[in-house]
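Q: Okay, next protein. This is Cyclin from Adiantum capillus-veneris. I've checked the sequence twice, so it should be correct. Can you predict the 3D structure?
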Amino acid sequence: MRASAKLDSEMSEDSPRVLMVLSSLLQKMVTENDKHASVLDADAATSSTLATHATTMMQRLTVFHGHRAPSISVEQYVERIFKYANCSPSCFVVAYAYLDRFIHQQPGIPITSLNVHRLLITSVMVAAKFLDDSYYNNAYYGKVGGGEHARDEPVGAGVPLQARLPPARHPPSLR
């Protein structure tokens, strides 16, 4: 079975193709980073000091990290966000650009199964607020994200990500 046929079967027929591409790219990234993280954890666990292991772990933990990986796949999560957030498909493209920028600005924080869901809902929320004429409040995006955000850290914890993005540029008004 070719890869695109597999993607087509996982996403609903109403989903724009950009969602399938985005979820596929994110899933590949998460799979690679999870493999790399497990190797780092094994190396740190065999190191001579507990302090080295603790330092390694603290460098990678952020407010976006969960205690365990959610049971929902990246593809299902993208579909869920698209269904309930009512944002335009272009928000997902911009959200991916935000994630790419995050990766380059924070190379010590790989996107893994422990943080991809929170990073994704936060980046889509920021993109929707930037691009779309109508959008929801942070609490609603937390519920769309599965509700765990409302209990643990609010989706608004992603404000540092938003603060690192360039300000919106508006064309000068014509007079």
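A: Here is a summary of the prediction. The first helix runs from residue 3 to 10. Residues 16-163 form a domain with the Cyclin A; domain 1 fold (CATH 1.10.472.10).
Q: Noted. On to the next one.
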